[in-house]
Amino acid sequence: MMIVIGGCQRLTCVTRVLNSFSHNLKFHMKDDIYIYKKIHTSSAINTIGNKRHNNEHWNSQPWFRHIQPTSHRRRSDLPEIFHQTNRNASIAAKLVEKAPSKIQPYMKLMRIDKPIGSWLLFWPCGWSIAMAAPAGAFPDPGMLALFGIGAFIMRGAGCTINDMWDKDIDKKVARTKDRPLVTGEVSQMQALTFLGGQLSLGLLVLLQLNWYSIILGASSLGLVIIYPLMKRITYWPQLILGMTFNWGALLGWSAIQGSCDWSVCLPLYTAGICWTILYDTIYAHQDKIDDVLLGIKSTALKFGDKTKLYLASFGTTMISSLVVSGICADQTFPYYIAVGLVGSHLFHQLYTLDINDPSNCAKKFISNHKVGMILFAGIVLGNLAKNALNKRRTDMDKLKNVERRNLLREVTVPL
């Protein structure tokens, strides 16, 4: 059955409603309409008319003007893609599935079944904690655990806030139409009460830190609240997300040292923001068709077919900022090797990125977990190497002092 929908916010859309378990859809062209199947677990297939659009901005985007048919993929392929890409996500999803039915909606509201967001929030914290550790020492495991718990709680709180803001939008998007607030499994009041509990637990974690860090951490709450609104206002919501997600790059150092060393923390924070813009722009390309229909803005729409060029500049800025931060923190050779590996990983991401293939974008997005892990390992190893380097410097200084005294004795003339 074909249903033609007119005037859907700048775009003529054709939706074909299919039984997801009885059809293997193939891409084809009919009546100048290209059928475009997204990777999402939806039964709605969005299609784009082949006519020239009235809006000049979208006409300039090749992906919008003329979305080429791609190879056939069944909906049943989707779980396999994510299973191969992130086994942890499958474990977390099974944990949610086996949980009591009364708490399942709240676990889904927190995205416990999708742990990648918690990892991406944690890694800047871990970088900063490891960077602030004394020379030759491992990062404080207790502090890492505390920030890990905090990242888990606050990521869940951020998802709850996002879903409360976006309830009316989520029900119109295939990928998000099954979220608990949309289906009615959780009411707005229940979500608000749950959010209060999450924020209370987050505050409890924050209160374990020093007063400087408590004030610094509390000051990020405004960013957490306003982020969901930014996609309605600006094409740069990923910038606000980056500022929010990487606040731990400042907080981790202050939790260890009592205050921020801005020469180290600001470049690290800048690197994290650029990283977030990079991976979340890739993520946003999965939803760009729905975003246009609903009037939602993102850097994916802003950059369009120049996405790789823009993201390459953000990747370069990230690597440069990491180098500056490492220099200011007296980091050693292992750290710079890790930075080089991160740069190679980002280059490979962008080189192999297909912004018109949602499955490709999903894989690239999830692979950024490895970026955080590589850099964290490099910081730890670089910090451990500081001890040997400092010992070598001390020995060289002693040797120079001995040579200087011997030289003075040789040139001294007896009275």
From TrEMBL:
Subcellular location: Membrane; Mitochondrion inner membrane
Transmembrane keyword on record: yes
Keywords noted in UniProt: Isoprene biosynthesis, Membrane, Mitochondrion, Mitochondrion inner membrane, Transferase, Transmembrane, Transmembrane helix, Ubiquinone biosynthesis
GO CC list: mitochondrial inner membrane
Gene3D superfamilies referenced in this protein's UniProt entry, alphabetically: UbiA prenyltransferase
Catalytic activity: all-trans-decaprenyl diphosphate + 4-hydroxybenzoate = 4-hydroxy-3-(all-trans-decaprenyl)benzoate + diphosphate; all-trans-nonaprenyl diphosphate + 4-hydroxybenzoate = 4-hydroxy-3-(all-trans-nonaprenyl)benzoate + diphosphate; an all-trans-polyprenyl diphosphate + 4-hydroxybenzoate = a 4-hydroxy-3-(all-trans-polyprenyl)benzoate + diphosphate
Cofactor section: Mg(2+)
One Pfam match: UbiA
Top enzyme category: transferase
UniProt-listed Enzyme Commission number(s): 2.5.1.39
Transmembrane segments: 116-138, 144-165, 236-256, 309-328, 335-351, 371-389
Topology class, membrane: Multi-pass membrane protein
Pathway in which this enzyme or protein is active: Cofactor biosynthesis; ubiquinone biosynthesis
Biological process annotations from GO: isoprenoid biosynthetic process; ubiquinone biosynthetic process
Chief location bin: membrane
Molecular function as annotated in GO: 4-hydroxybenzoate polyprenyltransferase activity
NCBIfam families in the cross-refs: ubiA_proteo
Family named by the database record: Belongs to the UbiA prenyltransferase family.
Known function: Catalyzes the prenylation of para-hydroxybenzoate (PHB) with an all-trans polyprenyl group. Mediates the second step in the final reaction sequence of coenzyme Q (CoQ) biosynthesis, which is the condensation of the polyisoprenoid side chain with PHB, generating the first membrane-bound Q intermediate.
Protein name per Swiss-Prot or TrEMBL: 4-hydroxybenzoate polyprenyltransferase, mitochondrial
Organism of this sequence: Nasonia vitripennis (Parasitic wasp)
